[in-house]
Amino acid sequence: MTHLFSEFSTDAILKVGNESLLESYKKSKQVELFTFIRTKDSSAEIIVDSLPFTIEPHSVLALTNIQYLQFIEGKDLVVYQFNREFYCIKDHDQEVGCAGLLFFGNEYLPLIHLNEKEQNKFNTLHEVFVDELETKDNIQAEMLRMLMARFIIKSTRILKAKDNTETALTSKDSKIELLRSFNVLVESYFRQEHSVGFYADKLFKSPKTLSNTFAKLNTSPLKIIHERLILESKRLLVYTDKTAKEIAFEIGFEDASHLSRLFKKYTSVSPSDFKKQLKSAS
């Protein structure tokens, strides 16, 4: 059974289910959502970025939204999928954020092996997830984000403690690695630097090289910068009382109208209208 949570005010999406969530990946395509695949008593076969991979029993695999996935086979799986607006809109510690160890902070595809005690903890956490997804109230979104944070924290601790990177799949695709490195830099500097040239210099690449490389991954360096700025704007509009003008200055715009135009381009509404929608939805 698949459970879907969506939040109109932030465009947040969370999907929790089994292998049926992976059926749309029978043909290789970009994941587009941050994804966790957990196996139980049997293994699963997938192809990630053209590399075949077996997820061993009682393991958790983390995939970023930029990777390409083909689902070959697997049963009795637990699958979590969410977009940036669901989890990344909250401010998290660097290691467990959307540029953390499980996603962009590692040159490996993280595979986390669970012992019996850890399996029981993850089973219990999944039961709480499902129960919360069936509880519709005004604090559901916050509870679900807390549960996902707990899942990511637990997974990150296990990965660090066991040094699973030695048994993980190494990503050999230089395009993916370049995109990950770019995302990590954007996470560090987006409040001050909005130009592709700045990040290209940091990566010892030309802006044209970045654009041509990312085009093969159906994105662009400027789009990634802009989407991060929009996400931060949404975060501040949702969780603070700051005005659109204050937010614009906080994330590096000298003129608030520049942010307003960018925000409207990506969301179809201005920051002030977005704030009004939040108040009317609450």
CATH level 1 name of the largest domain: Mainly Beta
The major sheet is characterized as: 6 strands, antiparallel
- How far the N terminus sits from the C terminus, by CA atoms, comes to 29 Å
Order of strands, widest sheet: 1-2-9-4-7-11
CATH topology of the largest domain: Jelly Rolls
Report the radius of gyration as a whole number of Å: 19 Å
Protein name: AraC family transcriptional regulator
Organism: Flavivirga algicola
Keywords: DNA-binding, Transcription, Transcription regulation
Domain HTH araC/xylS-type: 180-277
Explain what this protein looks like in three dimensions.
With 282 residues, the chain is an alpha+beta fold. It has 2 domains: 3-170, Jelly Rolls; 174-281, Homeodomain-like (Arc Repressor Mutant, subunit A, Orthogonal Bundle). Helix content is 45%, strand content 18%. It is built from 10 helices and 12 strands. The strands form 3 sheets. A 6-stranded antiparallel beta sheet has the order 1-2-9-4-7-11. Strands 3-8-5-6 form a 4-stranded antiparallel beta sheet, with no helix packed on it. It has a two-stranded antiparallel ribbon with strand order 10-12. The longest helix is centred in the middle third of the chain and has 23 residues, at 140-162. The radius of gyration is 19 Å and the shape is globular. Residues 164-168 have low confidence and may be disordered.
What does the secondary structure layout of this molecule look like, with pairings?
Blueprint: E1 3-7, E2 12-17, E3 29-30, E4 34-38, E5 44-48, E6 51-55, E7 59-63, E8 68-73, E9 78-82, H1 84-87, E10 108-109, E11 111-113, H2 116-133, H3 140-162, E12 169-170, H4 174-189, H5 196-202, H6 207-215, H7 221-239, H8 244-250, H9 256-267, H10 271-281
Antiparallel strand pairs: 1-2, 2-9, 3-8, 4-7, 4-9, 5-6, 5-8, 7-11, 10-12
